[in-house]
């Protein structure tokens, strides 16, 4: 069943076959890319997918677990959102983020979470991990029943022989389930789910699956009659990942679309983004053509 979002009535049957056909088309059109895809309805039931249980490299999507653990610690009274954390020179890293360009050396836990959710800030991520503890993030994953989804390390420029091979890994099935539970306000607690959802609403990367929904990357926290979106993306050489929940007219899907490929294939990035956009269009079409 496809359910309306809270406050609306129960809807009609989901277009399972259309979504699965779209997934198959995407995978078959780019055979040099390893795909993992999972789509769930509003109840959290799996609707369609491909390689959904495969462990994949997910780049910054792993930061979602860090946000959940920060929210959990704040809700439990172990941490305050107003606590100021200093920019640690030993944790500085370039690439994504804004804090490296700002002159302020201390920001609150809440503000750091906004930076992570909105622009995937690497410096903010590392400072938060140092404060809450990487082991706590791992324990959170275990408590949530995650077998394939984990944050393995800090964000690093270079990885030596003694470092984990990648920042984070995950399966499409587990990640789509996480997003579904956040949307249903059932991940850890209602308060934690709402907090994480509010942070994710600030995300500006709509370049992947979310490119199909016609939203303003800088202003889509409220649906205002348009599509409702909460998502987190990840991008590294050979990796693109987008996990989220999209809704419209009372209906919603949660999704995870992950692409991994050999970095020597220079055409793969474009093919991955094209496939992810196609998945977004399929989701949009499925929502718009679902009749109550």
Question: Can you walk through the features of this model?
Answer:
With 292 residues, the chain is α+β, with helices and mostly antiparallel strands. It has one domain (16-288): DD-peptidase/beta-lactamase superfamily (Beta-lactamase, 3-Layer(aba) Sandwich), CATH 3.40.710.10. It has helices spanning 16-29, 63-75, 109-119, 122-132, 134-143, 172-183, 190-200, 268-288, and strands at residues 34-40, 46-50, 56-57, 84-86, 106-108, 150-151, 168-170, 228-236, 239-248, 251-260. Strands 2-1-10-9-8 form a 5-stranded antiparallel β-sheet. The protein has a 3-stranded antiparallel β-sheet with strand order 3-7-6. Strands 4-5 form a two-stranded antiparallel sheet. A hairpin with a 5-residue loop joins β1 (34-40) and β2 (46-50). 47% of the residues are buried. The model is unreliable at 1-13 (pLDDT under 50).
What integer is the average pLDDT? Answer: 92
**Shape field:** globular
> How many helices does DSSP assign?
8
The percent range for helix content is: 25-40%
GO biological process, one term: beta-lactam antibiotic catabolic process
GO molecular function, one term: beta-lactamase activity
Organism: Mycobacterium cookii
InterPro entries: Beta-lactam/transpept-like, Beta-lactam_cat, Beta-lactam_class-A
Looking at this protein, list some descriptive labels.
10 strands; globular; alpha+beta; five-stranded antiparallel β-sheet; 292 residues; three-stranded antiparallel β-sheet; Beta-lactamase; Beta-lactam_class-A
């Amino acid at each position: 069943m496809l359910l309306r979002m809270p406050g609306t009535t129960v809807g009609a049957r989901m277009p399972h076959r259309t979504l699965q056909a779209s997934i198959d088309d995407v995978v078959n059109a780019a055979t040099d890319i390893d795909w993992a895809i999972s789509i769930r309805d509003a109840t959290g039931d799996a609707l369609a997918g491909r390689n959904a249980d495969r462990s994949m490299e997910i780049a910054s999507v792993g930061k979602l677990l860090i946000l959940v653990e920060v929210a959990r610690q704040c809700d439990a009274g172990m941490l305050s959102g107003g606590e100021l954390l200093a920019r640690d020179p030993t944790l500085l890293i370039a690439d994504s983020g804004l804090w490296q360009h700002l002159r302020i050396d201390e920001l609150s836990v809440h503000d750091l979470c906004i930076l992570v959710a909105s622009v995937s800030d690497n410096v903010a991520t590392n400072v938060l991990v140092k404060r809450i503890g990487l082991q706590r993030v791992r324990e959170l994953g275990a408590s949530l029943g995650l077998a394939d989804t984990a944050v393995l390390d800090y964000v690093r420029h270079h990885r030596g022989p003694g470092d984990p091979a990648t920042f984070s890994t995950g399966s499409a099935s587990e990640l789509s389930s996480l997003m579904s539970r956040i949307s249903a306000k059932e991940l850890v607690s209602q308060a934690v789910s709402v907090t994480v959802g509010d942070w994710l609403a600030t995300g500006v990367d709509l370049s992947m699956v979310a490119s199909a929904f016609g939203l303003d990357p800088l202003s889509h926290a409220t649906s205002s009659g348009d599509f409702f979106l909460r998502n987190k993306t990840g991008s590294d050489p050979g990796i693109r990942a987008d996990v989220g929940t999209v809704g419209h007219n009372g209906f919603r899907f949660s999704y995870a679309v992950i692409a991994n490929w050999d970095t020597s294939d220079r055409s793969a990035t474009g093919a991955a983004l094209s496939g992810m956009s196609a998945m977004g269009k399929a989701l949009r079409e499925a929502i718009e053509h679902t009749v109550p």
